[in-house]
């Protein structure tokens, strides 16, 4: 009765702070990172709402994966008032782009054909975090998902950063997924799924199998280009078991997750956040190197970090013009150039000092808009923008964090978004499991010293937890001694999501962003902010993109606007 406790983590990355999409245009010389809707416009998507259509789609999926023995897999569900509802949608995709979207909320149960496919050990179901999905399918529909495989195992083995599906897609497939919380948290139980929901669901499953195939190629070390249909790489699939068997049905745990579990289990009172509050974030070298990144004609695009500038040079994408100060000239035309004050902001050299008091001692990055909100913003508000990252000394950083809490309280009241009472709210102890583990450890380590009555009580506790067992064995004790006692709290409500949702519906996300900037200026009264730093920077930046035709009405809708 194992209680899985792997967590899907969400990760966001910061790109080069410049209006042009330089790094994405050039990365690995594969050209522009494209929208996944354009990259995967060849998909055949089948919506399954009846048992008859389910049988037909399952039969087609089986036919198409006879050679590859793997399908892209994902699940979606609705969360109401912090409580997870039964899985509403199962997504399966073949490598050649045939996708079945099985609407379990409409089917009410899992048809036999789909159940047999999900439980077929000879076909791998690949994705990110399938172990969690398998737990939910088991709890909701008594389906035993078999041969699930988390592609992060293979990504890590191949030397890639094992991030989420979106980051893996960007790096390996050069495709940007739609990971807006508006679609991720949408109504998957709606009578009819929107076109955006259908594309999102189908692409997520298909991207998983495409990444899986590409990583298998990397393991073979015979191919460096994208893998299309596999007709010339049969050897990869004949050795599928050798590559994947050890990862089948094994959850992927990040180092961060393990630390959380260990911390929660040990509950060491000596380990407190203040002991390492600044230890890991104090800067030991300047944040700003103030290197120069130029367009092919010599026009200054932006000030950049020396490492970023040399990255372009080392990849053969730019020429080194001067070493001190570092000056790098791109060999390709960027998507955009510096326009107005928005563009000039990124051309100005930055100072390595606290923006409040001008101290140069151990300055720390400060996110003016806290990450718990910013991570939920659509990509168009975050990409290539370092505007809200400023430097503060340790003392000012601490004071700013304290004053940020007042803003959070205000937002909680305004948006009906209660703040968690403590960091433990998201993860809770399973008291029943804790009691079982405690009993098992007592019997395992001190059985001879226990009074007969107490020993009998502990044995009864174990047998009640394992109703299919008739006696206590050494194997049973070992299993019970290691059962997890910390689990994710399904009733946990995200303050950040509720606040972002409120502003999306009532004003716009730009308004929330601007209020945090105004809060920082009002409460910290910084005297040394970068020149041209503006409360309305993002609004002005997006207006430039809109005027240049680089934004769509859908982009504006994603931030709560209809037009500028």
UniProtKB/TrEMBL annotation:
Keywords: Exonuclease, Hydrolase, Nuclease. The gene is LOC118262379. One of its GO terms (cellular component) is cytoplasm. The keyword Coiled coil does not apply. SUPFAM superfamilies: Ribonuclease H-like (SSF53098). It comes from the Eukaryota. Residues 45-220 form the 3'-5' exonuclease domain. This is Exonuclease 3'-5' domain-containing protein 2. InterPro entries: 3'-5'_exonuclease_dom, 3-5_Exonuclease_domain, RNaseH-like_sf, RNaseH_sf. It comes from Spodoptera frugiperda (Fall armyworm). GO terms for molecular function: 3'-5' exonuclease activity; nucleic acid binding. CDD domains: WRN_exo (cd06141). The keyword Hydrolase applies. GO terms for biological process: nucleobase-containing compound metabolic process.
């Amino acid at each position: 009765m194992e209680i899985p406790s792997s967590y899907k983590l969400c990760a966001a990355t910061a790109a080069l702070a410049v209006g042009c999409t330089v790094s994405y245009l050039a990365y690995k010389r594969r050209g522009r990172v494209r929208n996944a809707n354009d990259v995967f416009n060849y998909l055949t998507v089948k919506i399954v709402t009846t048992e008859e259509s389910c049988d037909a789609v399952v039969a087609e999926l089986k036919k198409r994966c006879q050679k590859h023995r793997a399908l892209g897999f994902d699940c979606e569900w609705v969360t109401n008032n912090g409580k997870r509802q039964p899985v509403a949608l199962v997504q399966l995709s073949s490598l050649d782009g045939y996708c079945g979207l099985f609407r379990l909320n409409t089917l009410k149960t899992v048809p036999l054909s789909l159940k047999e496919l999900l439980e077929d050990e000879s076909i791998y179901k690949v994705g990110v975090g399938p172990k969690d999905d398998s737990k939910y399918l088991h709890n909701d529909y008594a389906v035993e998902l078999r041969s699930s495989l988390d592609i992060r195992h293979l990504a890590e083995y191949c030397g890639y950063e094992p991030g989420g599906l979106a980051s893996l897609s960007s790096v390996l497939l050069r495709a940007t997924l739609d990971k807006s919380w508006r679609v991720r948290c949408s109504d998957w139980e709606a009578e009819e799924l929107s076109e955006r929901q259908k594309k999102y669901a189908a692409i997520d499953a298909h991207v998983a199998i495409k990444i899986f195939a590409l990583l298998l190629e990397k393991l073979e070390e015979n191919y460096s280009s994208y893998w299309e249909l596999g007709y010339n790489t049969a050897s990869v699939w004949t050795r599928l078991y050798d590559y994947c068997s050890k990862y089948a049905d094994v959850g992927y745990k990040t180092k961060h997750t393990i630390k959380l579990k260990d911390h929660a289990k040990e509950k060491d009172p000596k380990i407190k956040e203040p002991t390492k509050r600044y230890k890991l974030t104090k800067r030991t070298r300047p944040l700003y190197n103030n290197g120069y990144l130029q367009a092919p004609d010599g026009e200054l695009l932006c000030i950049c970090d020396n490492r970023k500038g040399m990255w372009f040079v080392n990849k053969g994408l730019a020429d080194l013009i001067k070493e001190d100060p570092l000056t790098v000239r791109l060999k390709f035309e960027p998507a955009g150039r510096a326009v107005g004050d928005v563009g000039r902001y990124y051309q100005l050299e930055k100072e390595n000092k606290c923006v409040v008091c001008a101290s140069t001692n151990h300055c720390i990055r400060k996110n003016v808009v806290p990450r718990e909100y910013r991570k939920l913003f659509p990509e168009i508000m975050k990409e290539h923008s370092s505007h809200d990252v400023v430097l503060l000394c340790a003392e000012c950083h601490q004071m700013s964090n304290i004053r940020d809490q007042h803003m959070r309280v205000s937002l909680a009241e305004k948006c009906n978004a209660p703040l968690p009472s403590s960091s433990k709210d998201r993860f809770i102890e399973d008291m029943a499991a804790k009691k079982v583990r405690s009993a098992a450890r007592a019997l395992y380590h001190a059985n001879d010293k226990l009074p007969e009555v107490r020993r009998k009580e502990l044995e009864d506790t174990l047998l009640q937890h394992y109703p299919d067992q008739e006696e206590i064995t050494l194997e049973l004790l070992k299993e019970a001694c290691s059962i997890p006692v910390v689990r994710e709290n399904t009733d946990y409500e995200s303050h950040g999501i509720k606040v972002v949702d409120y502003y999306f519906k009532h004003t716009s996300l730009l308004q929330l962003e601007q209020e945090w900037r105004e809060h920082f200026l009002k409460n910290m009264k910084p005297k040394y902010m970068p020149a041209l730093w503006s409360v309305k920077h993002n609004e002005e930046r997006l207006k430039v993109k809109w005027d240049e035709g680089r934004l769509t009405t859908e982009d504006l809708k994603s931030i709560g606007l209809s037009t500028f």
